[in-house]
Input
Amino acid sequence: MAKLKSPGELEALRNSIIKKRDPAKPCITVCNGTGCQAYGSKSIVAAFQDEVKKQDLGAKVDVKAIGCPGFCERGTLVVIKPKDIFYQRVRPRDVPEIIAETIGKGNVVSRLLFTDRATNEKVTKESDVPFYKKQMRLIIGNNGLIDPTVIDDYLAIGGYTALAKALKMTPENIIDEVKKSGLRGRGGAGFPTGSKWESTRHAHGDIKYVISNADEGDPGAFMDRSLVEGNPHSVLEGMIIGAYAIGSHEGYIYIRNEYPLAVRNMRLALEQAEAYGLLGDDILGSGFSFSIKIKRGGGAFVCGESTALMASLEGKVGEPRAKYIHTSEQGLWGRPSNLNNVETWANVPVIINKGADWYAKIGTAGSKGTKIFALVGNITNTGLVEVPMGTILREIVFDIGGGIPKGRKFKAVQTGGPSGGMIPESLLDLPVDFDELTRAGSMMGSGGMIVMDEKTCMVDMARYYTTFLEGESCGKCLPCREGLRQMKYILDGITMGRGKEGDLQLLEELCGTLVDASLCQLGQSAPNPVMSSIRHFRDEYEAHIKEHKCPAGVCKFGG
Amino acid sequence: MVNITINGRQIKAADGATILNAARAHNIHIPTLCANEEVAPYGACRLCLVEIKTARGRERLVTSCIYLVEEGLTVQTDTERIKKIRRMLLELLLARCPDSEEIQKLAKEAGVARTRFVEQTGNNKCVLCANCARTCEEVVGVSAISLAKRGVEREMTTPFSKDLSDVCIGCGSCSYSCPTGAITMEDIKGTRYIKWPHNSIKFKMRQCSVCGQYWAPEKQIEYVAKTSGTPLSDYDKCPDCRD
Output
């Protein structure tokens, strides 16, 4: 591949890629994210390839392994384009029939279609699947269109047009555009992205770093992984634009090593972007140079915290430090550093392409754009859901998520991962955005949503999250380390029938201390599950403590 | 110099001083465990939390051992909120190290008579402030000991938790910097014994060629000779017997 020396050459390359492709030629896409690979989707891809070879159909049909399109509940998913025929729960044995019927004769294999439970009708087209229909898939939607290991696929859907556009803008104009868009950090804290970029741009120092946080570690959350696995170039494109706006020439992507496919796909993406001259020296002939390295993390939850992440990048133990001087001024190796979550980076090309005004029309007054949630737990449609900020929680759980399986009742949803809070049924009409979730005693976090049904014991859930956080506390500061140890001990006691008068008060006092006194956000937000469950389900705690009863029938007492 | 107010008192503090430095310079007491002016601020024990209001009106809790003074800063070291936090931290500390006299003293000062939490055993007075490991790294420069493991399993230890460390010179700086007496050092008949919460090492000491007193561990003398570029023979006599 020759390096592209101008935006014009990029456009010429794009046109030649598109020209070579016949839009009418059927393309079988098979979802191939980590989750579906565990389900055996690799063998489905192989089976399609074998069958195509055996029947010598190579000229008639393409087979493409794509990233996670999001409807994990019905995986492995096969979509046949351009007709958009949607097959779900496909297994290798279904492959010959799909090839013979759908590719060979143009017939739909009815038994593999999705049945809409509301109408009991079979849905043929992917775009008509209710799970997708009610979403707004600005970011994750492209996963379904590309093979993440092939940069030409990304270019064919307009990839790197935002970069070419941005390189013609001034850095200040880009920052203004991002500020105007209202984009806030998708890692959880919701800090205004444009302002962060501006601080780093204005910070003193010749060397500045741009860092991407792909250290997603919440139980039940997999949107960041799916984004990096399924569309790594969208993250890269955002980072390059950000680096240009900030004035940085070196970037890092911090990915946990437990995400091997994400690491692999991102590494391939870096190599391919470099080969095209979209990364490296003199990008598209603009004179701007930027390179990115991947750093693999050891899988510590605390390393998602910015200062711990940077310590880990430096090769030190991943422990946080006080942030009285912002990392935008003194971050990695003491230099100005701009850290954003991968989903934040992936939003940047959209903003540059479509404009801040267009983007700012999506969402609520304080939270713009869309957010990807990992909808899991006791929910009919497990998967990745991308909706505009401000979407009502009930719509996410019931209209998109399909409600609670086995005819059970909804009890609560934990948003924001283990350090988020439990939101009860009475708050189901909450519009989901940064500020509303905080007001409800939870938080956006990275976007995990764990749905719980009536058979879930809230004390036990609080104990579960506290156990996770106790295990993930780095142990540096006293309140987080000792506080979580004691909090877990008290919760263990309550769920084993050892609860006593005064436990609730002590828990509440302890929670307050962790919020006020912990060094980093891990400790400060760790009491959320306990505090929110006491706030909304106090009667369950009291039943455990006073009557030694678990209303949900989960906790076993005695013995 | 910058003008700040601590507990209503107007104070001039040196540029670049922490709130804790400024308070101490004016005899205002803020309890601490992990603060040690010989090493970089760490902010782990959280006892030194204070409430501040910046000149721009932003109010928050900060660790006084890290936060630097700035013009117009107002500091409160003893509000009800601070006292409540300290009491809870001391209850947690009492549960961690029930037999530490230093913790008992701090608890008493804060008005905590007992802890409501379950007392632990086996921590041997160690509060994990890391003063020892930080002194060993930042002051001595050998990193013979460190904190190992994560979270509640965290412990102060020697490499691989063995009773030996190739690089430890037996200087005992860890013992001097420990606020709770969790690390002890004793010189008995030509041998230095350093006991950490979970490990211990013996060090052979050098005898003074004049007075016969055992005055420093051999390894420490070797280290000092090497880092200062002086011959080992310079250390035959103890400091008292040198000219």
Summary: Chain B is about 25% helix and 20% strand. Chain B touches chain A at residues 41-46, 49, 61-63, 66-68, 81, 84-85, 88-89, 92-93, 95-96, 116-118, 127-128, 130, 147, 149-154 (CB under 8 Å). The CA atoms of residues 52 and 58 of chain B lie 8 Å apart.
